[in-house]
Amino acid sequence: MDNSTWSPRITDSEMGNAIDHVVFYYLSVGLNVVLNPVCALLAFCAGIVNIATFSQMDLSQGVNMNLLILSVSDFVLAIILVLMTFTYISFWFGIKSMPIQQVALFGFRTINYPVTASTAVTTVIAVVRCLSVVIPLTFRSVVTVRRQIVAIALGCLIGWSVQMYNQILALADIKSMISRNSFDIFRNVFFFTCLSIIVASMVFLTIALQRSSMFQSRAASTSDSQSKTQNRREARVMKSVILVLTIFVVCNIPLLMLSIMRLASIEFSRSGQYRSVEDLVDLIVGLGISLNASLNTFVYLFHNTQYRNIIKTSFSHQSRSSR
């Protein structure tokens, strides 16, 4: 996300002429004052529920551990989004005190860290689930939970190190075009690579699930009850992973569009003719990452029996204690 879209700019002299400034004003207010705060609060609540639930599940299973890490990164992202929406609403009401500006600056400098972490975790989840289909017999011995955590940590460290390097240059007021271009190139390569892996994994898992369903229907008469239960469990896990990947891809389409726009033409830059279009897409990026951090909860509720049982147990305990 671009820092500039969080401060209102609605005059003709400050905006490109691609979008009428009145239209852009109401769109920005609708997104930053209504939709983004609601979605950020939803992501915040979803993060609390997901962390509390997955922490009670069997973390010796890689999928549960990875989803817990994803929930933590999404929760941190939700906290930053809530802070940023709070600052924008304050700016909109004319409250521009130094503490609020410091909070906004903190959000600008830190939001890419949980975004990078969520991207790395989602990529690892996609690759791990594909490996479970390709090497089912040796999967548990080869793709251990520790190795999955190491893969996530390496992905995060690579992305974070470049982000920190760019911020060090900014704090030192080193305005090197080469350094800035290097950062933009790496950020786009990292995002495009992860997104490509996730899309390819989503297609592969969808085909594998369809073939597995056809095979199970043919072998239903000869399979025992234990095998049927195991197959149904694996199918539920695969469906939930496919849905999580689909949500990630759909919610990151605005970010993909923004990256392509910036690479395609300089007119989408801060001084370009179509900067208002870039600003609008950048606002939608914030909405997309908020939805990505919250919609996974509904996938877990409908496709993860253990997750659903823990939620039911927690609510039943609370209802009993309140009586």
Automatic annotation (TrEMBL):
One of its GO terms (cellular component) is plasma membrane. It is a multi-pass membrane protein. The chain crosses the membrane at residues 34-55, 67-95, 115-137, 149-169, 189-209, 241-263, 283-302. It is found in: Cell membrane. Keywords: Cell membrane, G-protein coupled receptor, Membrane, Receptor, Transducer, Transmembrane, Transmembrane helix. Residues 45-300 form the G-protein coupled receptors family 1 profile domain. InterPro entries: GPCR_Rhodpsn (IPR000276), GPCR_Rhodpsn_7TM (IPR017452), TAAR (IPR050569). Its main location: membrane. The keyword Membrane applies. GO terms for molecular function: G protein-coupled receptor activity. Pfam families: 7tm_1. This is Chemosensory receptor A.
